[in-house]
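We emphasize that the prediction below concerns an isolated chain of 150 residues; any contacts that depend on oligomerization or on bound cofactors are therefore not represented. The input was used exactly as deposited, without trimming of termini.
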Amino acid sequence: TPEPTPEPTPELTPEPTLTSVTPAPTPCESRKWHINSDGSMCSNGYDYPINGNIDMNQDNYDSLEECCSAIFGTNECMWEDICNSIEPTASPTRSLVTIAPTTSPSSSPVVPIATPPPSVLTPTSNPTGNTAESPTQGPTLKPTPEPTPE
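Result of the prediction step, given as a token string:
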């Protein structure tokens, strides 16, 4: 009928549906582990074996390790976690290095100012020929206040 009836009908359904009832979704934190439908791995999905050898209410495990141990006799086995759909990457992710936080933050954001690249000095093609009376063997730590007289 297009509208639901207030009371159940006394007659049985002439032809029950052939599809199985879909269970209500379970939050991932509450999912139980079991052998999957083809018996190849542990899963926390809805793919229970259909051969009748597994009791869906009894052969459930609280952890992947418990399932692997009970089904395959080892703490590690092939598995499918429907709650974690993140695919592994082909290579490790580079870890990002962060600077240690300051113990005395500024009152406003500080924006670094980019400095220009250093200039490239080109030697002169016509030297003056004048040399200092006593040239230094290397650069001095401080500039002189006045040019050296020639």
